[in-house]
């Protein structure tokens, strides 16, 4: 099974480093991108109440978002091997809007969540195989309620072209590591979102040649 956690980032030189002063899992790239992501989510999730984060990885984003978006119940999820690390971050958090992380693999036929009004995932789609990306959106369709918001952060290609030379190099590194992975094309991802009943609200430009795609579930 392919790992789809925050540990692999578009900033590969920094992403896997361990902060020597910390015992918790740590990703420098998460530290680098958390504030720009927060600035978008403050608006995108302003009317949301419960968010499911898919592929929470180290748990850094979860703690930061829970602290700065206290109106949200921030529900982490990831494969079993990452849950202990997320719990270490959660143990140091004093708020009541960060419940115990859930074990979630996007290939599961039934996800361990009933209904949420927001979904967030960062740096996951280029780690998954394409069939897993398809299952990601099928799963989102099942759990995201009408009018809910889905935000996905990461690098994307446009019209089959890389947006930067660094993204091209990163994609080559990804495919050497796992031929089933790689930077996805925006049009193909947006097509999956539309098939899942969502429409694109905004394609946000982000630092380090990343994007944050914001969709909303049709309110029908």
How would you summarize the topology of this molecule?
Blueprint: H1 12-15, H2 28-44, E1 50-53, H3 60-68, E2 73-75, E3 77-78, H4 80-91, E4 102-103, E5 116-122, H5 130-143, E6 144-154, E7 156-157, H6 165-177, E8 184-185, H7 186-195, E9 198-206, E10 210-217
Parallel strand pairs: 1-2, 1-5, 3-4, 5-6, 7-8
Antiparallel strand pairs: 6-10, 9-10
What would you note in describing this structure?
The chain has a six-stranded mixed sheet with strand order 2-1-5-6-10-9, with helices on both faces. A two-stranded parallel ribbon has the order 3-4. The protein is of the alpha/beta class. The longest helix is centred in the first third of the chain and has 17 residues, at 28-44. The chain has helices at residues 12-15, 28-44, 60-68, 80-91, 130-143, 165-177, 186-195, and strands spanning 50-53, 73-75, 77-78, 102-103, 116-122, 144-154, 156-157, 184-185, 198-206, 210-217. Helix 2 (28-44) runs parallel beside helix 3 (60-68) and helix 5 (130-143) runs parallel beside helix 7 (186-195).
What is the compact description of this entry?
With 220 residues, the chain is of the alpha/beta class.
Shape: globular
> Biggest sheet: strands side by side, in what order?
2-1-5-6-10-9
Report the C-alpha radius of gyration, rounded.
16 Å
> Mind summarizing the main beta sheet?
6 strands, mixed
Structural class, by secondary structure, is: alpha/beta
Low-pLDDT stretches = 1-21
What is the helix content?
25-40%
**Beta strand count:** 10
Distance between the termini: 35 Å
Task: Report the mean per-residue pLDDT as an integer.
Answer: 90
DSSP helical segment count: 7
Measured by DSSP, the beta-strand proportion falls in: 15-25%
- Helices and strands, in N-to-C order? HHEHEEHEEHEEHEHEE
